[in-house]
Amino acid sequence: MSWELADIAPRASSVPFYSTVTAGVLDTTGLDAGYWYRNLRQTVRFEETVRALLADGFQVFIEASAHPVLTMGVEQTAEDHGSRVTAVGSLRRDEGGLERFMASLAEAYVGGASVDWAGMFAGTGARRVDLPTYAFQRTHFWLESEAIDAAGDVASVGLDSAGHPLLGAAVPLPDSDGFLLTGRLSLRTHPWLADHAVLGRVILPGTAFVELASRAGDAVGCDRLEELTLEAPLVLPDEGAVQVQLVVSGPRPDGQREFSVHARRDDVANASWTCHAKGMLALNSTAVDGTAGPADLTAWPPADAQAVEIAGFYEDVAATGLAYGPVFRGLRAVWRKGDEVFADVALPEGSRADAARFGLHPALLDAALHAWLVCAAASSSEGDGIRLPFVWSGVSLHATGATSLRVRLARAGTDGMSVLVADAAGTPVATAEALVTRPVSEAQLAPSADDGESLYRVEWIAAPATSPTSTTTPTSTTTPAPATDRCAVAGPDPFGLARALTAADGSVEEHADLAALAAHVRSGAPMPDLVFVTVSSASGEDVVPATHAVAHRTLDMVRAWSAEEGFAASRLVFVTRGALATEDGEDPRDLAAAPVWGLVRSAQAEHPDRFVLLDVDGAEPSLAVVHQAVSTGEPQLAVRGAEVLVPRLAPGGARGVLTPPDGTAAWRLEASGAGTLEGLALATATDATRELGEHEVRVAVRATGLNFRDVLISLDMYPDEAMMGGEGAGVVMATGPGVTSLAVGDRAMGLWSGGFGPLAVVDHRTLVRIPDGWSFTEAASVPVAFVTALYALRELAGVRRGESLLVHSAAGGVGMAAVRLARAWGVEVFATASEAKWDVLRGLGLDEAHIASSRTLEFEERFRDSSSGRGVDVVLDSLSGEFVDASLRLLAEGGRFIEMGKTDVRSADAVAAARPGVLYRAFDLGRRAPSASGRCSRRSCPCSSVVGWSRCPHGCGMCAGLPRRSGS
Q: Are strands 571-577 and 611-616 parallel, antiparallel or unpaired?
């Protein structure tokens, strides 16, 4: 090559040249024959060069090639570097034309590359045009809080506006002379409520219930809250809302009225109502201080009161689980005088405008109570965790709209306090004769079945029928009302839509395509209300090209429809046939048309009421009702037979939940052999409660590791008979004869079978004690990976210091364990993994010369070169086919090939005949003797969990940096 390139005379370049040989900027005069020889022989330092470019500020990378292969590597390097870049190719495989090149150019332009568009369009007749202004230019798009809180025109449905931020509507109840107030609370409409969190969950403060009761009293002429008892915390969900109903009964002879506050989730079907508070409303008395003696807050601060330090108060209570946000942090100053506590409180500036809409803002009254927390005596009754308001007695509101308060709290009885709050002049604003608090536990705030904190799924239900022009709530029936819209069919009609529409409604226009329809309308003809187009693929077409073709045709129709002004008042109905499944277990018949639903849904979001999606089963009954179905006004529909279905979100958590068999002490998760995850079931595990034999222990399972073997078993793809749950952690409950290593009560981890259940019977020789400081979850994620690696390398391969080892799929659990163990033993490690996982291998301490792809056979030549032609002593394999052949060729004389995979197990004799001197051993971890398992478990214990830890707790350091695998 030196001779061939000897005549090259490189010259200086005006463009900086970053070399992957030197990993930096290089003077191009040095690009001689010697440079290109080094380029071919030395390691390509591409990743280092990309980092150098990033450090110098480059943000756009263009790979000029027939097909991009480096863009992903550039993006991953940039992500690791903390930089945002645009990486694009120029052409692609089978896309070598100008259209692909222009698309790549546009991608680069969007990423910040400069493009000479004038030169690009020179001579084409293209000209610049002004883009239309943004639809919401100079207009507020997001609703203001006042608009969100407004109840709207509730009078149209027979209600009165409640005129309150927490309530939407009010209505007198006939016969009983009672009253009903309703509202809807969420963190979106009432974001300030998020500032009141207890043990990590947002709850409606007790002072808000006082405010709700006061509003109810106003509605029925009662201005005194005689008593309010809070029965259950009202937890507000992170997403969604709760419906609130406050019911006031008719008056008793003494004029008092009972009331109750109920709530339920707004977005959970058939959610049950929970009673959160009950109480009594009455007529007010003349007292305003709520105490036996006089109260005067005009002199401020009170004489002889001692100031109390409040710095750090909110941080301190947050550590106990009571988190107050800015709106509730109203405490400004606190004083103490004997058993009395005084305070200044105020709403933050941003919340004061809302105060006039409340009787007394709940956040302001809540802040008034914080003074008692500051000065609370450290008694057992007041130091037993978080305490929340429980019972309010004798509450009266004397003035409204306060933004700041003077507060006086005094002990009332053995476990209560009286409350007096006044304005800045000392004039009473509100009084409470007594407030009693009680502790709240995590169990009281735990999610319930109605909390809706579960997955949701789309459920196709019978569509409610409605007249095409009706605006009232539809009745619950599955028979659509007769339709009167004018209809047309445009384009090919393989389903026979025109015939079916004509038979059902009498007259339907037919047009060759949307262009023909547009020309017809421009000629003066009336525009149809509904235009139907069919979307399908031809029978027998290859699904991939058919999908592209159908999607492009659909996109063209969406664009044409949106661009034609004459179509603005009509709707375009895309009709598919079997493109989606409406029932569990149903398979779509036309996969190529399925993506059309996603594409058109996007168009529906941008152009409401312009597009409709309709899927039919193709039978005559379904085609006969398509017109009536579309006339319901639903944007997405399916017709099965003559039934019209619409999609609705439904909670998915409760449906199909596995439950243990009745009357069983032990059960386990097992695969039924159906080959699907839906085939999993909880089966009785009688063997888990039997009498223990020699060497056996019974373990109460606390966590079970989940690995790929379990997935294969659940899908009926595992080659041997096996049960799910092969590793875990728990507590020893009983021991059998001959057990000396463990005792009842020990925390143990290790290998077992059938561990997805509450109990397991295990040979104690496969278990070790869980090291101090480890959780059950951490312990359950360890055994299989490290025991497998240790058994393969020590027991089977006998790997020794100074030897070399090739680990395939080294970024997996066993692979990473093997790398760490081998490096700790002084073994030279070579490893393969997909390129996206090479950073994991680098994190395990491997350099570029010892890393290769597990997707190509390049590793054979790469590692032979890195080992100076010698190869490796041991291969730990999990691959198959030609990868096994290449790995065998890479073994040095006397090498050992350890196969832990299941897909390409070979004959040891055949391998020995083809490769003299090479030892081939395949193994199944589950078939080892318990003694061998226990021996490996105890060996791996000192370094096994280290999984994800920055250092090994036992000091060996060989496992630092391994990521956790999942535990369940």
A: parallel
| Percentage with pLDDT > 70 across the chain | 86
Q: What is the mean pLDDT of residues 191-196?
A: 92
Q: Which residues of 324-342 are buried (b: 16+ CB within 10 A; e: fewer)?
A: bbebbbbbeebbbeeebbb
Distances (CA, A) of 713 to 516, 719, 784, 880, 898: 58, 9, 16, 20, 23
Q: What is the pLDDT of residue 529?
A: 93
User: Are the C-beta atoms of 872 and 806 separated by less than 8 Å?
Assistant: yes
| Backbone region of residue 286 per phi and psi (left: phi > 0; alpha: psi in -120 to 50; beta: other values) | alpha
Q: Is the peptide bond before 635 cis (omega within 30 degrees of 0)?
A: no
pLDDT band for position 454 (cuts 50, 70, 90): low
Residues forming a β-bridge with 344: 333, 406
Element (H, E) at 414: none
Q: Average pLDDT, stretch 128-145? A: 59
Q: What is the dihedral of CA 114, 117, 120, 126, to 10 degrees?
A: 170
Mean pLDDT, all residues of the chain: 84
Beta strands at 727-735 and 747-751: parallel, antiparallel or unpaired: antiparallel
Q: Which of 106-120, 140-154, 287-301, 478-492 has the highest mean pLDDT?
A: 106-120
SS3 203: strand
Q: How far apart are CA 297 and CA 295, in angstroms?
A: 7
- The tokens describing 30, both together, are 């040095």
Residue 833 phi, psi dihedral angles, 5° rounding: -170, 165
Q: What tokens were used for 427?
A: 């004039």
CA dihedral 933, 939, 940, 941 (to 10 degrees): 100
Q: Which two tokens stand for residue 82?
A: 């903390």
Q: What are the respective helix, strand and coil percentages of the chain, to the nearest 5?
A: 30, 25, 45
Q: Could you tell me which of 549, 575, 573 has the C-alpha nearest to residue 496?
A: 575
| Structure token digits, residue 198 | 């207890």
Buried b / exposed e over 929-942, threshold 16 CB at 10 Å, is ebeebbbbbbbbbb
Q: What is the mean pLDDT of residues 142-162?
A: 59
- 72-97 in b/e form (b: 16+ CB < 10 A) is ebbbbbbeeeebebbbbbbbeeeeee
Those residues with Cβ within 8 angstroms of residue 734's Cβ, 6 or more apart along the chain or in another chain: 692, 697, 698, 744
Distance of alpha carbon 550 from alpha carbon 545, whole angstroms? 9
Q: What is the 3-state secondary structure of 471-525?
A: CCCCECCCCCCCCCCCEEEECCCCCCHHHHHHHHHCCCEEECCHHHHHHHHHCCC
Residue 885 has pLDDT above 50, yes or no: yes
Highest mean pLDDT among 499-508, 667-676, 879-888: 879-888
Higher pLDDT, 137 or 359: 359
DSSP bridge pairs for 804: 828
Please state, as a whole number, how many other Cβ atoms lie within 10 Å of the Cβ of residue 956: 15
Phi-psi category of 204—alpha, beta or left, where left has phi over 0 and alpha has psi -120 to 50?
Answer: beta
Q: Which helix (H) or strand (E) holds 456?
A: strand 456-462
State the burial class of residue 476 (Cβ atoms within 10 Å of its Cβ: 0-12, 13-18, 19+).
exposed
d(CA 71, CA 165) in angstroms, rounded, equals 54
Predicted confidence (pLDDT) per residue in 604-646, tens digit: 999 999 999 999 998 999 999 999 899 889 999 999 998 999 9
Q: Is the pLDDT of residue 955 over 50?
A: no
- Give me the residues paired with residue 534 across strands: 575
